[in-house]
Design brief:
The protein is α/β, with parallel strands linked by helices. The chain has 8 helices and 15 strands. 33% of the residues lie in helices and 32% in strands.
Amino acid sequence: MKVIRAILVDDEPLTRERIRTLIEKTEAIEVIGEGRNGLEALDLITQLTPDLVFIDVEMPELDGFGVIRELDPENLPVVVFITAYEEYARQAFDIGAVDYLYKPVTPSRFAAAVGRAREKLAGRSASELHALIAAATGAKRGYRKRFVVRRGAEHVFIPVEQVEWIDAADNYLRLHVTGKTHFARGTMKQVEEELDPSLFVRIHRSAIVAVDRIRAIRSHESGGHVVEMNDGVQLRTSRQFASRVSGLLA
């Protein structure tokens, strides 16, 4: 039987101790890392690439759903959420988690979760991984408040109100913030759905701008518009999103 490499993340030491003890009593599973919040979870998952993650939903810095949203969809581990609230337990299944565990975690429920994890690891598909990311994006209602970006050896937060405009860079989003650029995981379609449409508008297949950072909008001789940002950058609009730019001029 293949040994499952697992990490556990919870801000409550007693919960971590409880799950660690249950893991030690379970055949072919080992703890390779522990974390206390969402940022530590991101670091552990990125560095250790575990097979399985036990993660609390409500944590400081970044919640469990937020952690899943920020991960690379090509390298997602199997996820078991830990929660004290029934509402989050239902959402855990909605976003494709293999199982959830109520606090305090019982041996029988833990064994069932590990069994489901083994089955999932044996046969999960790439489409399931992408579905998990997409569902985690909408697991909590409300618009995105911040981005998580990697800066050296740490993850840092960028509040959305600091972002001036966003463009696509291969498989990443490039955030433009007061003359600096930061890279975050995600797609233009995904981030467009997450941002408040009263604050951000998509003007091109590969560009989203903050409405209050627009200096001017000018007609272009070849049709369409040129959007000039406060930092002097000029961005061409595309026909597909022309009506959205026209809406700003109404």
